[in-house]
Amino acid sequence: QFVPPYTEDCRRGTYPPSGPTFKGIVPWYKINLDLAPRVRWNQLINDKKVELTSLIQVIKNLANDFFPSGKLIEIVDKSLAPLVDTLPSPFNEELKGIADVSGVPLGEVMLFNIFYEVFTV
Amino acid sequence: CTSLVAEDNAGRLYHARNLDFGLFLGWDVKNESWKIPEYLRPLTVNLNFQRNNKTVFKSTNFAGYVGMLTGMRPGTFTLTMNERFSIDGGYIGIIEWILGKRDGIWMSFLTRSVLENATSYAQAKDQLAKTKMLAPAYYILGGNQSGEGCVITRSRTAALDIWELDIKHGIWYVLETNYDRWKDPLFLDNRRIPAMKCMNQTTQANISVETIYDVLSTKPVLNKLTTYTTLMEISEGTFESYLRDCPNPCMPW
Fold first, then answer.
1. Which among B51, B84, B250 is the nearest to A33, CB-wise?
2. Which of A106, B30, B61, B137 has CA atoms 20 to 30 A from the CA of B163?
3. Going by C-beta distance under 8 Å and a sequence separation of 6 or more, which residues neighbour residue B48?
4. What is the rounded distance in angstroms from the CA atom of residue B99 to the CA atom of residue B141?
């Protein structure tokens, strides 16, 4: 159907995934729960530091489109970071570890982690 | 999002999902796509959480995100979470949290806690239904025995509905998008009917990882917000994830 909602006949034979709707396989990582929470994400975050920083930057750009003064991100950086300490273990320490390794401010790591809650409205 | 649990004629349980996220968060005019899914795809990873060198659970996740939206405790249960929009949404829970009322749990943290600690389908279901949360959600849970599959519709404080597989009465799959099952979906965002139509056409006799991927590849079940598709089958321990794209013409949500 070439008008919205672009409904189509049920697809057949798309597996194994290939073609234009397939963008790639998802890589595997091991997370060792025996390690301290602060360091267990280190390898993954080291590998994905650039991608994580890019996503956070896009979110900041969107926020700055709505609040050009930059105040919103200032509030996120200042107000959300202390909230990390109110999270239960091991989440609080894990977020700190992610911020340490990625270089992304802790408040912005926290924002990324509560995205789903925020957008349920 | 679209999540489903289905049982084939042999009693094998399949659980799959499309993760859709990023609506209204910036449109990339050049690529004709939403910005957030574009940036989430390179962050998508499969995680094998281990203790004593043994797998505790597996999940598809975003690097930097410590909660869980999709996961499997091998041999025990499978779990996905879909967003549930509500006026009494997560922002109220967040405000309460900031103000010091902290008796609820963040919903993706609950998913992770259940994957990490629950040792049976029944225990997982109980925790997902009864734990107080900061935001409403749909939890889609599959077990390892015939008939073990359900959609738990959650408000912040209670389970509003638990919709279960009922093979004897012909309910061989349960399927959830982002709307309460007793209400019609928004007419602009009806992925439920196309997905159910494809499941019904497939039939219980032919349901498999392959045919479920077909269902989740059919527009508008697949749409511009779809970041990844995950396919799980509990008895064999199958856990596969694929990054997705929806070239034009394609629904923006």
1. B51
2. B61
3. A28, A29, A30, A31, B55, B58
4. 32
Kind plus residue range of the DSSP H or E element containing A62:
helix A42-66
pLDDT mean across residues, chain B: 95
Residues 6+ apart with CB under 8 A from B147: B7, B164, B165, B166, B167
DSSP state of B88: S
Amino acid (one-letter) located at B174: V
By the 10 Å C-beta count (0-12 exposed, 13-18 middle, 19+ buried), B169 is classed as exposed
- Max CA separation in chain B (angstroms): 53
From the CA of B94, how many Å to the nearest CA of chain A? 8
Residue A73's CB is within 10 A of a number of other CB atoms, namely 20
- Distance between CA atoms of residues A83 and A61, nearest Å: 23
Structure tokens at B110: 């609950």
Q: What number of residues does chain A have? A: 121
Q: How far apart are CA B216 and CA B194, in angstroms?
A: 10
A80 exposure class (CB count in 10 Å sphere: 0-12, 13-18, 19+): buried
Tens digit of each residue's pLDDT (9 = 90 or more) over B55-87: 999 999 999 999 999 999 999 999 999 999 887
Q: Is there a contact between B141 and B79 (Cβ–Cβ < 8 Å)?
A: yes
Q: Which residue of A has its CA nearest to B22?
A: A119
SS3 readout for A13-42:
CCCCCCCCCEEEECCEEEEECCCCCCCCCH
Q: What is the DSSP letter of B171?
A: B
> How far B7 CA sits from the closest chain A CA (Å)?
19
Burial class (CB in 10 A: 0-12, 13-18, 19+), B210: middle
Condensed to tens digits (0 to 9), the pLDDT of residues A20-29 reads 999 999 999 9
Q: Residues with Cβ < 8 Å from A91, sequence gap 6 or more?
A: A37, A113, B66, B67, B106, B109
